[in-house]
Specification:
Strands 14, 15, 16, 17, 18, 19, 20 and 21 form an eight-stranded antiparallel β-sheet that branches. The longest helix has 19 residues. Helix 1 packs parallel to helix 2 and helix 8 runs parallel beside helix 9. The protein folds into two domains: 269 residues, no CATH class; 96 residues, Elongation Factor Tu (Ef-tu), domain 3 (Beta Barrel), CATH 2.40.30. It is α+β, with helices and mostly antiparallel strands and 377 residues long.
Length: 377
């Protein structure tokens, strides 16, 4: 028997929550007798009825355990949904006793890990799918702590997105908020995962030689703004107002053998003092680059990631989860679900669900402007 016996996925959009839910369940087709775990992603237009939707999904599918998130946009096989009531679900038949749901909240998470310490060791649990509340400023530390606890752990997922903060909700059994929640899976469930960046580094890599908090004063012992101007070129330097949304800071990840980096916003420029404000705390002697964000760079790196996953999957893909940045999707690839179509066209038609996030999680870090694709193989 294969470790994962079957995966199904479906999506639907429309008006009333009952109609959308019913159409989504119908699109799943014949359900297996032993469904184990469900993933559900829904647009924020349906968030007010999330509890009702969960009850209906349990009743109609027989799946008791669900995890997922609200998103301003959601993902399905070859399709993206925005600005309308929509649901995307994925149901997996997993080995017995091969997963545990993660509740939100530090105390509840700690209790769950303590109660399941023997299970974690016996089942060699090193992988989890997690969703977080972007209002919680401590999530980067929580993500790192959970990954460390799994020794070593590899997490994938994203932070909820919605127009109203009221509906920044996650699912792990019931509705969760304020923290990190999701599901841990045993090594009996084989997965592969990869990350694609939406930016391209400019040519130079620098060292932070003076900073305070998120204020960057010097790079390579030169004023930070002078280095920035040299990197972006004369044309952009004439009007620094044009760099917003196009040029970002990139913080290389120490020890990464794939050149991964964290993209952070430029949130301020002081021309008189020649300072830059970065959307993260900085450390002296750490590396920093500048990068540009554009559609061509995103497509090129997306193709690289898909080629890598095609090679590693050896032609066997049972299903997948995709977490992409809100700044990608229609904002970077076009309005015809082009980002999700790239996945389908390169890897084939397979069950897929996911959402467009306020931040993406891969391994033990919180990223921005990235796509994280995980495949069950």
């Amino acid at each position: 028997m294969q470790p994962v016996t079957k995966i199904l996925a479906a999506s639907a959009s429309g008006g009333h929550w009952q109609t959308v839910t019913a159409e989504c369940v119908a699109a799943l087709g014949a359900l297996p007798e032993d469904p184990s775990l469900g993933f559900v992603y829904l647009t924020d237009a349906l968030a007010p009825w999330l509890d009702h939707i969960l009850q209906e999904l349990r009743a109609q599918t027989g799946v008791a355990d669900w995890t997922g998130s609200v998103g301003s946009g959601i993902c399905a096989t070859g399709r993206e949904y925005y600005d309308e009531p929509a649901i995307s679900v994925l149901i997996a038949c997993l080995p017995v006793d091969s997963f545990r749901l993660i509740p939100a909240g530090i105390a509840d998470l700690t209790d769950m890990l303590t109660e399941n310490r023997q299970w974690l060791a016996d089942r060699q649990v090193h992988f989890g799918v997690v969703h977080g509340d972007p209002r919680n400023r401590h999530l980067p530390q929580v993500i790192q702590s959970l990954a460390s606890e799994l020794d070593p752990g590899f997490l994938v997922g994203g932070l909820s997105s919605a127009e109203s903060e009221e509906f920044l909700q996650q699912v792990a059994g019931g509705i969760q908020q304020d923290g990190l929640s999701g599901v841990l899976m045993s090594s009996a469930i084989p997965v592969i995962s990869s990350l694609t960046q939406g930016c391209t580094p400019l040519q130079h890599r620098h060292t932070i030689t003076r900073c305070q908090g998120n204020i960057l004063a010097e790079l390579d012992h030169r004023p930070a703004l002078d280095v920035f101007r040299a990197d972006i070129g004369e044309v952009l330097s004439r009007n620094l107002g044009r760099v917003a949304g196009y040029i970002f800071a990139a913080l290389p990840i120490p020890g990464s053998d794939t050149g991964d980096y964290l993209v952070r916003n430029l949130i301020g420029i002081d021309p008189e003092e020649k300072l830059l404000a970065i959307g993260d705390n900085l450390e002296e002697d750490a590396p920093l680059m500048f990068c540009r964000r554009d559609g061509d760079a995103a497509r090129e790196d997306m193709s690289r990631m898909l080629d890598d996953l095609a090679r590693r999957s050896h032609g066997r893909i049972l299903g997948g989860l995709y977490f992409s940045c809100l700044g990608r999707g229609r904002n970077q690839f076009g309005n015809d679900s082009d980002e999700l179509k790239m996945i389908r066209d390169r890897l084939g038609e397979f069950p897929l669900a996911g959402f467009f996030a306020n931040g993406e999680i891969s391994h033990d870090r919180l990223y921005g402007y990235t796509g994280v694709l995980t495949l069950f193989v």
